[in-house]
């Protein structure tokens, strides 16, 4: 398994501002993922972030709104730009590990936009 | 990735076995069945996965039917701490497999 930490754990932000969420893993991983979980709903994949290449975004998510950095094999950031109340969600990072392709998740960042 | 169908909710008495079903009738030959759970306000937790043989680990057992169109996750002695949303997901295995796509899952409530 992997130990994954996220910062901040929660934040309250004003409309129109941006927040950068950090994800740190205790081992080197090739594939990292960012998910969003809106209140009362399941997880939705935002993008896949591989080190050394541009992030791959899922339908409905764009780089201008959710820019991602992946500077090395243990770290990634997700920025939520020009926030609106609809961006209020839990944002989770995840890594792919193991021969069986198990995914492990961070504790999440709870974002509230007012 | 194949679509999965799970009941939206289930109840179980503490100390009894919890059997969570999942239908995946469109699963293809190289796709695995993965189970995750999400305890309230936490990130999802990997439980177990399998291809066609039954699997067991320290957390649970996974029973996959011979035709692979359905599976059951078994928590042998459920505790209150097992109350969570359980997700059954089908995808390819290994680092080349596609990413996890979460459905709505089953809300398991373990009652004292």
Topology overview:
The complex is a heterodimer of chains A (114) and B (112).
Chain A: E1 4-7, E2 10-13, E3 19-25, E4 31-37, E5 43-50, E6 56-57, E7 68-72, E8 75-80, E9 89-97, E10 102-105, E11 109-113
Chain B: E1 9-13, E2 18-23, E3 31-38, E4 45-50, E5 55-56, E6 61-64, E7 70-75, E8 84-92, E9 106-111
Task: Explain what you see.
The complex is a heterodimer of chains A (114) and B (112). Chain A starts with a strand and ends with a strand. In chain A, the strands form 2 sheets. In chain A, strands 2, 4, 5, 6, 9, 10 and 11 form a 7-stranded mixed sheet that branches. A 4-stranded antiparallel sheet of chain A has the order 1-3-8-7, with no helix packed on it. Helix content of chain A is 0%, strand content 54%. In chain A, β7 and β8 (75-80) form a beta hairpin. Chain A has 114 residues and is mainly beta. Chain A has strands at residues 4-7, 10-13, 19-25, 31-37, 43-50, 56-57, 68-72, 75-80, 89-97, 102-105, 109-113. Chain B contains no helices and 9 strands. In chain B, a hairpin with a 4-residue loop joins β5 (55-56) and β6 (61-64). Chain A binds chain B through residues 1, 4, 30-31, 33, 35, 42-45, 48, 92, 94, 96, 99-108, and chain B through 32, 34, 36, 41-46, 49, 87, 91-95, 97, 99-105.
DSSP summary, beta strand count of chain A: 11
Overall, the morphology of chain A is globular
Helix content of chain B: under 10%
Overall mean pLDDT score of chain A?
Answer: 93
Per DSSP E runs of 2 or more residues, the count of β-strands of chain B stands at 9
